[in-house]
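Support request from a user on the community tier.

User writes: "When I paste my structure tokens into the form, the page sometimes reloads and wipes my input. The last time it worked, I copied everything first. Here is what I submitted, just in case something in the input itself triggers the reload:"
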């Protein structure tokens, strides 16, 4: 089971640009990519709070709309290097792949189609709307639908929230250092950290030699 943003899709720079648009609107100073990866947290409201933006029920939708208007059209978004061959290697080995993402499911499916990756996955679970919510209940629903025990699965993500979700549902977890949290933060989580999703086949013991 894999996360999408920051794990398979390289979109952290786009997230920084979207966040800076919100900060400019609020008269707050912009931040660097490095600063973003140090303050990123879940839920998203807490991240804005750390940057001095008060996110309330009254203004949250407008903040989300502003962020996604910039994020979704950012030209820097691409697949992580090596993601496609890694996924194809896993599929060829008979390993089932699913996505559980905090992204809006309709946008997630459009992204998969744009990258030509929808066929790599047995199931895709996003959320209904742009305001990020926990992945735990949706991950559990996928396991039930496939009749698979979480203990037999691996959760691959790029944030502490991904690890928290994996622990809550009883999955092993590996984190990738390409996403929304710095390697230094991830290294304190107590689970394996790999450079990118491209290393996943080798991490689980598949022979990736030509």
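"...and here is what came back when it finally went through:"
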């Amino acid at each position: 089971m894999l996360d999408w943003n920051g794990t398979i899709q390289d979109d952290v720079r786009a997230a920084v640009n979207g966040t800076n648009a919100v900060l400019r609107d609020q008269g707050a100073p912009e931040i660097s990519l490095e600063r973003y990866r140090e303050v990123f947290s879940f839920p998203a409201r807490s991240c804005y709070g750390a940057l001095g933006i008060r996110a309330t029920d009254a203004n949250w939708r407008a903040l989300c709309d502003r962020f996604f208007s910039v994020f979704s059209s950012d030209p820097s978004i691409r697949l992580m290097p090596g993601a496609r061959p890694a996924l194809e290697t896993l599929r060829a080995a008979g390993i089932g792949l699913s996505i559980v993402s905090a992204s809006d499911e309709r946008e997630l499916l459009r992204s998969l189609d744009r990258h030509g990756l929808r066929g790599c996955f047995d199931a895709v679970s996003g959320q209904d709307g742009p305001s990020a919510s926990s992945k735990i209940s949706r991950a559990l629903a996928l396991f039930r639908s496939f009749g698979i025990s979480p203990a037999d699965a691996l959760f691959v993500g790029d944030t502490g929230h991904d690890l928290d979700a994996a622990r809550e549902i009883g999955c092993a977890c590996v984190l990738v250092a390409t996403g929304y949290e710095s390697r230094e933060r991830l290294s304190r989580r107590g689970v394996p950290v790999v450079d990118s999703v491209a290393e996943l086949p080798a991490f689980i013991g598949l022979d990736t030699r030509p």
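Agent notes: The reload is a front-end session timeout and is unrelated to the input. The chain is about 45% helix and 15% strand. The two ends are 26 Å apart (CA to CA). Escalated to web team.
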